């Protein structure tokens, strides 16, 4: 198997990355509840549209990693810098627009409720926010996600501090636990469990 290359995602690659996220998250239980279980094509399109907007926000202020094999994007990971978790009023409007377009009102309200739940559980202290971390469905469990998260954790090792991530499947909880993350809270969102995990990363050499 050819070598994986991890590098910063470039702005013109956001469209490809959003489509990849749509494919990889399409069958997650939480998104099935929010965007509907009857039409996976619409669900994937809605997720792609939402994450297209989110990636443009992240690329302007944070860091987005891409995993490439032979020039093809096969995974992404977002690292949100301390202080950037809560969107600005302009960003909130952009997010709302991405959810309204093509979705019934019930779906938009469900998605906004999901986001409010997650924002409400952000740690009050300054922290690094990780996610989404996602991998092309056909390449999951082959080390791509592990390499992405290794690079994300390495990027914040020098600074140290608290790292925080949400997970909406038991498999994701086990994945983050391999990197030292511990569950700090569990809530039910739209009848689906969501886990919140954190890890305090010590600066290198201390």
What does the main sheet amount to?
7 strands, mixed
- The helix tally amounts to 7
By helix and strand content, what is the structural category?
alpha+beta
What strand order characterises the main sheet? 1-2-3-4-5-7-6
Give the helix proportion (percent range).
Answer: 40-55%
Shape: globular
Distance between the termini: 37 Å
In short:
This protein has seven helices and seven strands; from the N terminus they run βαααββααβαβαββ. The protein has about 210 residues and is an alpha+beta fold.
Model description:
The protein has seven helices and seven strands. The longest helix is centred in the N-terminal third of the chain and has 22 residues, at 40-61. 44% of the residues lie in helices and 27% in strands. Helix 1 (14-25) packs across helix 3. 30% of the residues are buried. Strands 1-2-3-4-5-7-6 form a seven-stranded mixed beta sheet, sandwiched between helices. The mean pLDDT is 91. The chain is α+β, with helices and mostly antiparallel strands. It has helices spanning 14-25, 29-35, 40-61, 89-100, 105-120, 144-157, 170-177, and strands spanning 4-8, 63-69, 72-80, 127-135, 161-167, 182-189, 192-201. Strand 6 (182-189) and strand 7 form a beta hairpin.
